[in-house]
Amino acid sequence: MTTQSFHPPERTLMGPGPSDVHPRILEALSRPTIGHLDPVFVEMMEEVKGLLQYAFRTENRLTLPVSAPGSAGMEMCFVNLVEPGDQVIVCKNGVFGNRMQENVERCGGTAILVEDEWGSPVDPAKVEEALKANPDAKVVAFVHAETSTGAQSDAATLCGLAREHGCLTIVDTVTSLGGTPVEVDAWGADAVYSGTQKCLSCTPGLSPVTFSERAVEAIGNRKTKVQSWFLDLNLVMGYWGNEGGAKRAYHHTAPINPLYALHEALVILREEGLENAWARHARMHEALKAGIEAMGLSFFVDEAHRLPQLNSVTIPEGVDEARVRSRLLEQYNLEIGAGLGPMAGKIWRIGLMGHSASATNILNCLGALDAVLSDEGAAIQSGRAVPAAMAKLGNG
């Protein structure tokens, strides 16, 4: 066998992530690699921190990208804030609430579960009840935008309840950052993590995080060592620096070119403007929604709690959903996502994230889905989806 260079096909990525990567970001990846302690690179690191503060809507000094994907950002929040014996209220309304519970237990904490149906937001009344019943709880953890269902929870209310009861908050914004309002300071959130491969249109592999002064104080007052050496913020900040211009100490070799890509992604976000990015995602969702409903399909999540950038569409009865996804990939180079856990076989997850949230992608997706479902004999209203979406886009 002769080993050859790998040349992937060009796909349109409209699943739950990664999303299409902006061409400017791909170009940024190809720029010359320099040392991770090079003064020029350190200057760029400072710019990345400032741009992330803009994206998160925060003045938190401790804001940086973790050199690993969103799951590591999640783990960084938990291992730094949760010590053995701590009680943590974990809100579960999908896959990623389960992962939060796993993190608490691996840190030696006790997870107090607040559970809601998949597809529903976290119920603030249940959280308040749990806070009253567990006055020693240290942290409330919840997912703002649940990627497994496309449901969005009320972060401002949940963070407010936690503060009223003297709790810190850990908030997952992996799918929301850059796509729907994330207001870290206005919410009063304490430890917030995200990913680069969703609404930021960047490649996977980095996790933006931000920590409030309350969280920094709690980390400084720990009684035990952080269980992870790599994710210990006391060590990581020696490299990233709490203050601009602080001397960097070697901790790890940063992923230099991916950080170029993140910098470019955040520059693009700043150029568009956060509010404009949020409005674009909402507008594109309305166009997709018009087409999906004109086809005769429906959404899994109630409209009031639905994420515009992650759309869970109920699969028509009698349709082989895996075969449909396979045909979309093979015949149209189009990727959409399957359901997870109890939603497997029941929903498709169609992403409209970052660079993927475009009129061209929506019309191509609807046309391809219409053609494949019609050929599979699904009971849909064929030929109506694209005109409905076009009419909505025309009004935009």
From TrEMBL:
It comes from the Bacteria. Keywords: Aminotransferase, Pyridoxal phosphate, Pyruvate, Transferase. Belongs to the class-V pyridoxal-phosphate-dependent aminotransferase family. The modification N6-(pyridoxal phosphate)lysine is found at residue 198. Residues 40-339 form the Aminotransferase class V domain. This is Alanine-glyoxylate transaminase / serine-glyoxylate transaminase / serine-pyruvate transaminase. Residues 1-20 are annotated as: Disordered. One of its GO terms (molecular function) is alanine-glyoxylate transaminase activity. The keyword Transferase applies. Substrate binds at residue 349. GO terms for biological process: glycine biosynthetic process, by transamination of glyoxylate. InterPro entries: Aminotrans_V_dom, PyrdxlP-dep_Trfase, PyrdxlP-dep_Trfase_major, PyrdxlP-dep_Trfase_small, SP_NH2Trfase/AEP_transaminase. Pfam families: Aminotran_5. Its cofactor is pyridoxal 5'-phosphate. The keyword Protease does not apply.
